[in-house]
Amino acid sequence: MSQFKSAEEAAAAGKYVRTVRSFVKREGRLTKGQAAAIERQWPKMGLNLNNGLLDFQKVFGNDNPVTFEIGFGMGHSLVEMAAAEPARNFIGVEVHEPGVGACLMAAEQAGVNNLRLYNDDAVEVLKQCVADQSLDTVQIFFPDPWHKKRHHKRRIIQPEFVQQLVQKIQLGGTLHLATDWENYAEHMLEVLNNTPNLENTSTTNDYVPRPQSRPSTKFEQRGERKGHGVWDLVFKVR
């Protein structure tokens, strides 16, 4: 896009420009239970991109701090966190509809009311729906590592995207990343260390032990039994 200042400008000139996305679309079928949960719970817990900028007071009915999770998968840990912290609000973004359905099923069973979901691309949600310096915490756990070197450019944790995240977090707020790929952890650490206005909370200036606020998943526990590592990065916005 070197000759264009924006994707919109390129489009007006009849040129296609590949834009950054937070995901790669994978097809998946909804189970009957997931579909039913969406039908029952989406009117209460669903958020839509075309509704524009969020008013958290209106969405949640309170001024509690907001945690924003990108790519929550099937949503079990997100629901667990919401249930454990009723005085905190949670917004999850997941592009895969079966994951959204599974998360809504779990939320319904847990009886949580401090959780809202988007079934959209997080890049667009952040751009269109989240005000600057409005989030207390942003978390991204176990994003696709794109482990082949030629695919590293597809990783969501890139300098431009992290700068966008920081812009949305309040001063003193938190950016929490986790991965079970050491190479990706090293990449994340390099990107965050080189992002203005971020400060590493690690006493060794690298990784932190898993915070109690992040539940350990069955997948993670199985990996640990096999000797696989997990790396948590927790940075503060200053």
Overview of the structural elements:
This protein has 238 residues and is of the alpha/beta class. It has a single domain (31-237), classed as Rossmann fold (3-Layer(aba) Sandwich). Helix 2 crosses helix 5. The protein is globular, with a radius of gyration of 18 Å. The chain has helices spanning 7-12, 32-45, 56-60, 76-84, 97-110, 122-129, 159-168, 182-193, 218-225; strands at 46-47, 66-70, 89-93, 115-118, 135-141, 169-179, 198-200, 231-237. It contains nine helices and eight strands. Strands 1-4-3-2-5-6-8-7 form an eight-stranded mixed beta sheet. Residues 1-8 and 10-26 have low confidence and may be disordered.
Question: Any idea of the CATH class?
Answer: Alpha Beta
Give the overall silhouette. Answer: globular
Distance between the termini: 32 Å
Major sheet details: 8 strands, mixed
What is the oligomeric state here?
single chain
The percent range for strand residues is 15-25%
Q: Helix coverage percent of residues?
A: 25-40%
Structural class: alpha/beta
Major sheet: arrangement of strands: 1-4-3-2-5-6-8-7
Number of helices: 9
Average residue-wise pLDDT: 90
Radius of gyration: 18 Å
